[in-house]
Amino acid sequence: MSIEENKALVRHYCELINKHDVPAIRKIMAPEFVAHRTTYDMSRDDWEEESEMLFATYPDIENFQEHMVAEGDKVAWRETYRGTHARMGKKVEWINTYIVRIADGKWVEAWGTIDSLNLMQQLDVVPE
Known about the structure:
- By secondary structure, this protein is α+β, with helices and mostly antiparallel strands.
- It has helices spanning 3-19, 22-27, 44-57, 116-122, and strands spanning 29-36, 41-43, 62-71, 74-84, 91-103, 106-114.
- The protein has one domain (3-122): Nuclear Transport Factor 2, Chain: A.
């Protein structure tokens, strides 16, 4: 795939997040997909489970993509999530950065950093 096709696939992923379409998100990931997070790795099944939890916790969540760059088989971007915590009623916003490696039109590997400290502070789980 070309760099532009890879970037389009990432933009499509963000559209699917905004539609809360977990089955379609799963389809863009290869069966062997692995996401390397700061402290653990996630499989495609783990990612699907986490997405379901995210949409249940923040039913109005929206994803806004920013600063996308691509080279070869990798796409990197910064994204902002905004939503309201279903139980707490608190509006929150947090930033993630991701890099994905794409092969044959599927995500095969990802590296992500999530601004979870900021999110926890907004939810008053940890002090500022």
